[in-house]
Design a protein that fits this description.
heterodimer; A: mainly alpha; 19 helices; 77% helix; globular; B: mainly alpha; disordered C terminus
Chain lengths: 493, 230
Amino acid sequence: MILIAFVLVSVVSLFIIAAARNHRQMNTVCVAQALIFAILAAWIALFEQVPVVSFLVGSQYFFIDHLGLFEVLIATVIFACAAVYARGYVEGLLESGELEKGSLRLFYAAWALLLLVIVLAFFSDNLALFWIFAELTTIISAMLIAILAARENIDAAIKYIFIASISMLFAFVGFIFLFEVSRVHLGTGTLNWTVLMQHAAAFSPGMVIASFVLVFVGFAAKSGIFPFHTWLPEAHAKAPSAVSAILSGVLLNLGIYGIIRMYAIVHQTTAIATIAPMLTVFGILTIGIAALSMLPQKNLKKLVAFSSVENMGIMLVGLAISTPVALFWVLFHIMAHAFTKASLFFSSGILHRQYRSRFSSDAADEIKDVFRLQPLAAWGIILGGLAIIGMPPFPLFFSEFFIMLQLGAVSLWVLAVMLVLLFIAAVALGYFVLTTFTQVSAPDTPSDIEPYRTPASMKAPIIFLLVVLLVVGLVLPAWGMAFLNQIVTELKF
Amino acid sequence: MIDTAIVVGIVRILFVCIIITAAYIISTRNLLSVVSVYALQSLTLVCIALALWSLEGSIVLLEIAVVTFISKVLIIPYFIATIQEKIRIKRDIEFHYLNPTTSLLISMALMLLIYMALARIMEGTPARESLFFFGAVLGISLMLMGMMVTFSRKRAITKVLGFLSMENGVLLFGMFVTELPFIIEFLIIIDLIILVILTAILSVGIDSTLEDYHKRLHRFHLLEESEEVP
């Protein structure tokens, strides 16, 4: 029943967006939609018996378990923050003529639709249905990237669509394999995750390996794992910052979520012995490529985008360890990374408005006098940067620390390589901040840069997310830990 | 009921047709004929689905045939042909990395490779007689050949056709390996149509000249809007 509420809210918001006359109204609708979604999700988490089995939701197509609910909670919070942020940000885009007035309605319609599709994807029980929703997220988010109607945005969007969709076709072939495996074993084929989980232990490992590898290709492309990460920096750097935050904070999770679901099935078979080393190799390669690409990076948004790639690698390595503790901290990492990355993209969005280069978003950022012009964004980048490289007391410290502790028990060599790579990534971020933020114009010469008056709606989400991160890092609430433990048990680790 | 041997023979002939169309899509430089060949390839798939239906009598295959015919033989080719007229590109002679001859050679090698790989993977599964096995091999080969098209062509509109050809491969593979529920096939088609519309609109922006590019995009935004807002 509760799913119908999600759909109804979205339909109503789409209608209001279609009827709205100005930007403010459309934006308010999107904020309201995200908030209602968040409240609904929180209500399920607090008052419903999860996993929810009721009319429609408990049917073979949809279900709500702790993992899906967890992802939806993250997604709705980030969407709400991003929608508040977009209020000021999109206003700026309209003023500077980067976004045309005619595209505004399309932008918000796609925005509202994207949230609904993401929620439905996380609540899908049927893997094929999940695949279809994941595909739709690619298409809709590509639309949000291309909305700026600059040639480079369209280029990035097309690259994103083709790489992600082609890889997702491989994932579908993987699901066909899985369907066949279940048909051989059960008599009638099924792609229902709950049913597959019950019977996974008896599946033949050869087919499961083939199936996992193909599915992995698809969702690795969605989550920017090497060697399918090439679309990611382009798309994330060129999208409007409010959209970048969603791409990094929510859509990458969708890819990892698919891998986790599939891995939970593989985990019960003997195929795990082949798959786990494979994931480790891809994880380390991803971290390595991302860290080395970050080093010479002069563009802030690209730097932040590559850092997302790096974090996806960390999650993959954590997953490959496949102990309950490691999985627990991978889930924690997903949440912490999403919030941190969203706040980083919000901050860099402010700097982007302040110092945007007129010709290309590939150009190096000419950041000057940053503490005088945009103190909040500067501190947002510094604190967010500290959080993303895993400094205590930010929550990413705990997840990275415990994942590495678990990794050390498996292989010290891999741990050493990973530590070096993480250090390189941290140095890259630190170097960027040190070189760009310290550029100050001489005190007596008047600066020719006009300060960008940052609206309060762009500042509030950054402060909110950083406070949330600090609180989570300092308190580590017990109910949250219990919730994560529940997910780990449900995944049968 | 028609004699089984005849149907199997027909399916084999249709397999050959599929290989020919795939090879043509890889090698030709004429854009307009790529679209019609794609329509022909989809039509072949419809025929295969019908032939299989007469063998197995499963209603899902009939439904797949109908949906494929409407969407991939009629709607999508028509839409792409309209777009092509709008951007006035007749020939696509630019290739990345691979030229047509090399791609053809590579695709032959790929087919052999897939044959061997699938033979190993499918060893354990029962009732894999030769026809169904060949269908699966051909499906994956078609997919990889479509992927080569998307990688080797520069124009976005040809990339789309490569992607569509890949999807045909997935459908072929699905038809021969197992029986997916109809609703899933149907949703995939919907997904495909939206993807084609979007990439086509974007490629109007990319493939036309810079001067009237903003103007064109504008015109299509209206079209796009009516697609998305219910």
